[in-house]
Specification:
This protein is mostly helical. It contains 8 helices and 2 strands, in the order H-H-H-H-H-H-H-H-E-E. InterPro entries: Tetraspanin/Peripherin, Tetraspanin_EC2_sf. Residues 244-253, 281-291 have a biased composition (Low complexity).
Length: 291
């Protein structure tokens, strides 16, 4: 069955949404798996004392969130492309849970911004300690990204004595050649100052999820309506067969049509062949006409 109008627009919106959602889910899952099974971070999960650390919790959240997003994408793409009601209903339920969770997490992060800032600072310290112990190149890339994004340098902020000075950004002034902002305090301050922006990002993402949820419900309703509506078949009148004219049949009792005799053009010849109705006398010399 095929949908049209509003259902078709919602179908295309869901396909585009699922493509973006799959890219984000793959990024979260790949980063979480890399932090979980990398040579520099694998040992952290083997210590029971570190199982409740911010690093372990953050990596676990990344993996779980990536898997859930990919599962949602699978149901969404299959339901939208093949117009299957069961897959769309499952996609709608999962999407509703994600949207509600996104809004709740954004509000809780804003309300507990001090605690969340400290947890993020602890996460950075864990990455810093792993790089200092193993000098992992992949970890150096992660620290470089954090340092350039927040414009900070290590846990001390002094590039001359900092272990991770190779990953620190270029100084913006002469004073920053000696002292730069340290990353744990910068993370805490940034999160406290921009807690409203962070909550806005969470709420905006939740709004996009609700838009996709509305499109999924609309598409499901259109598919159900298309399945329940009667199917009309246009009947065309049959084309009449060409009439074959048959020659007239003669009855057995009807006499055959008369055969015209030959016209007499030469009287002397015709005299030798008398017509019917003339009788020749016995002598053959005279003709008598019979009336």
């Amino acid at each position: 069955m095929a949908v049209d109008g509003c259902g078709l627009v919602c179908k295309y919106i869901l396909v585009i949404f699922n493509i973006i959602f799959s890219v984000v889910g793959l990024a979260f899952l790949g980063l979480g798996l890399w932090l979980r099974f990398s040579d520099g971070t694998r040992e952290i999960f083997n210590f029971e004392a570190l199982n409740s650390s911010a690093f372990v919790i953050g990596v676990t959240v990344l993996i779980v969130l990536g898997v859930v997003m990919l599962v949602v994408v699978v149901f969404g793409d299959y339901g939208a492309c093949s117009e299957k009601k069961c897959a769309l209903e499952t996609f709608t339920a999962l999407l509703a849970l994600l949207a509600v969770a996104e809004v709740v997490v954004g509000v809780l992060a804003y309300a507990s911004r001090d605690m969340v800032g400290h947890k993020l600072g602890e996460f950075y310290v864990s990455l810093y300690s792993l790089y200092a112990a193993n000098n992992d190149p992949a970890m150096a890339i992660t620290l470089t990204f954090i340092h350039n994004t927040l414009h900070c340098c290590g846990v001390t902020g002094i590039p001359l004595v900092e272990i991770v000075k190779k990953t620190c950004p270029n100084p913006d002034s002469l004073m920053e050649n000696l002292v730069m902002p340290n990353c744990p305090n910068t993370i805490l301050n940034v999160f406290e100052r921009r807690a409203g922006l962070v909550m806005g990002i969470f709420l905006g993402t939740g709004a996009l999820l609700f838009v996709a949820l509305i499109c999924s419900i609309t598409l499901n309703a259109k598919i159900r309506q298309s399945a329940s509506s009667p199917q009309y078949i246009i009947l065309t009148p049959p084309t009449p067969a060409p009439t074959v004219l048959q020659p007239p049949q003669q009855g057995f009792d009807s006499p055959p049509p008369p055969i015209p005799g030959p016209s007499c053009l030469h009287p002397p010849v015709c005299s030798k062949h008398p017509r019917p109705g003339l009788r020749t006398s016995s002598s053959g010399s005279s003709f008598s006409k019979l009336f």
